[in-house]
Amino acid sequence: MNLPEGSPPAPEEQAPPSVMFASGGISWTRVRTPRLISRVAKAVYATSALSALALAYSEMAWFGVVGGLGLLAWPMFILSIILSLTQTTFAGGLAVSRTELVVHGRGSRRTFIPLSKIVGALVVHREMFGGFVPTVEIELKNGDLLTARLPDPSSASAVVRALGFGAGGKRVHASLAKPTRRLLHPLLGFVAYVTAMAVMLGPASVGAGGKFEYAYAVYPFVALLIYAGLKRLVRPPEVTIGEDGVMLKRRFGRTFVPRADIAFVTAQGSSLVVERRSGGRVHLSGLALDLARRQAVARVVEERSGPAVTAADRFTHYERGGRVLAEWRAHLAQAMNQASYRHNAATVDEAAAVLHSAEATPEQRVGAALALRVAGQPKERIRVAVDAAADDRMREALEAVAEARDGEVDDPAVEKALQRLPPT
Fold this sequence. Notes:
Elements: E1 19-22, E2 26-29, H1 32-46, H2 48-56, H3 60-71, H4 73-84, E3 87-90, E4 93-96, E5 100-104, E6 110-114, E7 118-128, E8 131-140, E9 145-149, H5 153-162, E10 172-175, H6 184-205, H7 211-233, E11 238-241, E12 245-249, E13 254-258, E14 262-268, E15 271-276, E16 281-284, H8 291-303, H9 325-337, H10 348-355, H11 362-374, H12 379-388, H13 392-402, H14 411-419
Antiparallel strand pairs: 1-4, 2-3, 2-9, 4-5, 5-6, 7-8, 8-9, 10-11, 11-12, 12-13, 14-15, 15-16
Helix pairs in contact: 1-4, 2-3, 2-7, 6-7, 9-11, 10-11, 11-13, 12-13, 13-14
């Protein structure tokens, strides 16, 4: 089986690997290809509705052609399940440069993956042969999962840091599902098939005047809708961990917990539990969840909950205080350049510390970003915080500030983003 997409750049564009890591084995878990086959199978399955209409109008030739095409959906469904449970495993190593991950495979085979296509990297301790093996599980944008077994925990953590997902790095996205959770889908498909048959074909079969054929034409779409609903009902929870907090995605809706409100996160029973300082708990639970991944997520949250890097009373320098945006920007410019008899002047380093602090409110983070821009700092310094934010509303606000030219912020865009920020 070929390795995932990713062709090597031209020789003059290749950056020498900055870090090389030995591996005890590398595995690919395919998601994109099975997903694509499954979608095609659903479209083919839906064409069976045309066979019913052909039967209703006594078009037997079309009935045979379209009916035969609809039957192809079943082997395609089976193939997608098999591929989703199949791993490509080989001996190899990893190299990480400033722009890409290089996977060394058999012989001279290499696969180049741009770092921009990686959405998460976790150190997961997998139980193997009576012990625990540190593995790095790397999730790509297309859903494929690369797993590398490392010789020791420190090497595994070094890979994650080199990829930019260590403490102070980019936000980490992780699903809590077991790798074998795909086995639930055939059961869901069978339930959807039987339910749709009972709902649509049962009453029509005792009717008259060709109602059976018309019910059969609608039946595939009803089955697909039921299947989609069942998938949503049992959808595994997902977690996105950033400097600003943790975004918890459940079956129906999302919950954002600010970093300052997180007391601790732990894997309890079959759930991931987020204990809030403000009181209460958030439980993430579901069918066939991965204990090792839940424990890994809890460790990442703990690693990113560092102590405050600046005095708490300095945070108020970056609050809006009811000012209009232009006044807020002017206030920050003055604070960056002048000191009063009560307060020291704000500094670029202090603003950067507030921007990345676990204790800062959303408004204070944006204020720190504005301060950096009016101080003439490059937008790349703020983009680091954009990549590290778990809440898309925070990302939008910081992105608007980062795109400002010479500190002249696009007021409508920033104001709109500020209105959407989570409450403090």
